[in-house]
Protein 1
Amino acid sequence: MTENPSPLGRFERILLATDGSEHSAGAIAIAGEMAKKCGAKLYIVSIALYSPGTNSLEPTLGIEAERLAMNNVEAARDRLGYGNCETRVLQNTDPARAIIEAAEKLRADVIVMGRRGRRGLVRWKLGHATERVVGMAPCPVLVAPRSARMWRNKILLATDGSRYSDTAAAIAGNIAALCALPLTAISSTLSSHSPERRQEAQEAIERVRQALSEKGIQVDSWLAEGRPEQTIIKAAEKAGADLIVMGSRGRRGLVRWKLGHATERVVGMAPCPVLVAPRSARMWRNKILLATDGSRYSDTAAAIAGNIAALCALPLTAISSTLSSHSPERRQEAQEAIERVRQALSEKGIQVDSWLAEGRPEQTIIKAAEKAGADLIVMGSHGRTGLDKVFMGSVSERVLNQTGCPVLIARS
């Protein structure tokens, strides 16, 4: 597909992920009602878990996994009886990866999924696949408890003035307008917060209230004191809200790939659906930072970074990292790798400077981006050590979730 994603909160392409368990029931109901309300294209997907080693030894296991996944999507389709619907079975070793890749390929405007999967959970925490999808998806993710239904009463918007909250506010406003529903905006402070921090929270919530009121939305706002996840859930119950909208992370940023602490807990504990919004990124205008280590993934990243730099007429900084424990031979390899990149891009007329830094790769990359004033980082999905886990290399994963600018991850 070539079309662009729809405007925030206007859901024209909905991706429903189901595993056929009772935990998917609420997600199926809500996805169907959303699709009918918005006149959207609904994609229903289920994952046939694939293990190359196991499936080669026992082929019937793969066939059975595909049969079960097909039953899941067909049961959801038949239950909804919605005409503009397409079902797909996705083969993958990792459910979260499969769902995110499908969302990217289909240009989904929102992913709808259950809070937990077949394995269930005996604690408040999210299912592992759901948590990863919410934390890494390119679009908003709506997580539905199994008893959830489409919202008809009120929307609760949780905001803290961060960029993630700005995106959440735009989405919540559009949903409120589409569904003709009132909205309550809430922000939280702690007793330990300074008067300045409390004033910031008050100003943030007032900005949201004013902006949404100017769009004709009925808005009331609360400034609560207490732990964010507790105040958000209590406010939803008090307001009678049947949808919570919030950013995937808050003001503190992120020190890991996972969701922000408050978001994770709200999604895991809320009695109603929670729509989680990623931060909106802006187009780069200053400089591109290319991280390279000489691997084939880095070669792909270099080609992409060069094309973007040429297209946007932007300068580029190439960086490679070594550790103090590296041998002289390894340091020489890093130097040669970065020089090859610098020379190749310079021959294409791109303004390039290069740095060889010492330190942990994710730290040197983020610091270099800040120092260079870069507003786009381009890097390979994995490094010289290959694939150290299912989704992405640990360095690219940390950079992706710790930097303040967009990151373009290139696969080999």
Protein 2
Amino acid sequence: MDINKIGRYKFFLQYLVGIGFAPDQKGIGQMIGYNNPSAFSQVINGKKQMPKDFTAKLKRLYPDLNEAWLESGEGKMLLTENGGQNFFGDINGGDNNFSGRDMTVNPPCTLDSILIKYSRKSPLNESSQRRHKPRHAKPKSRWIGS
């Protein structure tokens, strides 16, 4: 794949969103200090000059980024094959602000979170509703008041 420098920046941002590192491009901009999403977007799209420390900020945000690839296209995008993530321990050194990996803002995906998310989107069908009826509900009285 032969892409220009702006294309590599966009590709890297799409990668970060794709792996769940950030919810979207705006989130990445906020992580590196852009409070105005439009300003970040203009830099990424080449409409504004890229600040000299822009690449360094992305590298601090995601240390496995290969700066040579980002700047010139040489080598691979990541320095390691697995993206430098270690799921067997604390990846943020105990500091949620370390390299932008705030797990309280972007928690890892779990099966429970997926089930909760999708169970809220679709109502239970009739047979499921009967099976999941609360057991503490009072039965309706059959007596008509006097």
Protein 3
Amino acid sequence: MQIVPPTSTETKQRMRVFVIPVVALSVLGIAALLIATRASIQKSATKAVEKIHKSIFVSTVKPIDGAVTPTAASNPQSPQKNLGYLVVLKDKPAVVREKELSLQSTPVATEKNILKDYRSQLNRTQVLAQQDFNAILKSEIPPSQYLATYSNVVNGFALNVTKAQAEKIKQSQYVSAVVPNYTVSALLSDTMPAGTDESGGGPDAGTTLTGKGTTIAIIDTGVDYTHPDLGSCPSPYKSATCSKVVSGYNFVTCNQYDMNTGDCVSPQLENGDPMDDYGHGTHVAGIAAGIGVSNGVAPDAKLLVYKVLNSQGIGWNSWIISGIERAVDPNNDGDFSDHADVLSMSLGGVPNVPGPDVMADAVNAAVDEGVVAVIAAGNGYDYKKIG
């Protein structure tokens, strides 16, 4: 993933997430980001980053007793570089359109009606785009090759097509960009000391906060929601029976790859159970919001868990974007008012790739909706880019 920190007017406009340019978990920034109220959350970010720089290399914390803790010595990598392509359409995604309406001081009722009509327009255009793809390729793309469809933070599709087919799809009148759907993997290293922190400023300055009233979206390998520090929720997962993990989904469609051939040896369907079978997401969730012998930095925060990395800690940009799509609309009803307060993405992808960065656009759209994005950086020793 290639989001360049702001060094020019163009990149300042493009990049709006908090970058942690050290060997770190994305969740580290949550120390001040979540424990603040919405009014002071932005001001707390600077303090969080400063504290991370001071503490990152001197403490390794495992706040969840018994949690599987992968090492950072060798981050998992799929033998495949990409799984098809991300096809971005020209119309703006729904979140961007809603932001435009809010800046115009559109009345709430009117805004909802306009956004509802706009969503219908996006759906119609997506159907027309699919028909256009078939016409260009002179054959129908099977539904199974549509890996995902997006409309919240990205408008488009993840398509499992060949490079030659992708080049032809670029010719469609509906398409603005076609880029490879690259592999992504979990990242993990040292962390800052666990526990609550003080607000960095604003109305809560000097007070100890615990994240009460906030939600963290963990976009990762899932979470072991049966763990006593994370709610002791029954399995299989049901949101109605879990007080800590209040919503979740599993976007992984291949739980294991043959690391020599790249073939999927354990296919599965998307489902509503975000159980962690790798350990990384559970570790991240514990640092963020665990309650136990060693509390997380925001123990009273609720969790939204989106499993986008498989049992090997491997995923694809398409799965990650699906997680971000759901984080801005947890109940999938088209209303973004229940979006996550903070987005944790402790993962990284293929560096220095050409073309538009669809992942960055998705994150930026979520930020425009009011989500604070905290993303790992520096794990690949490239301190200029996220991942």
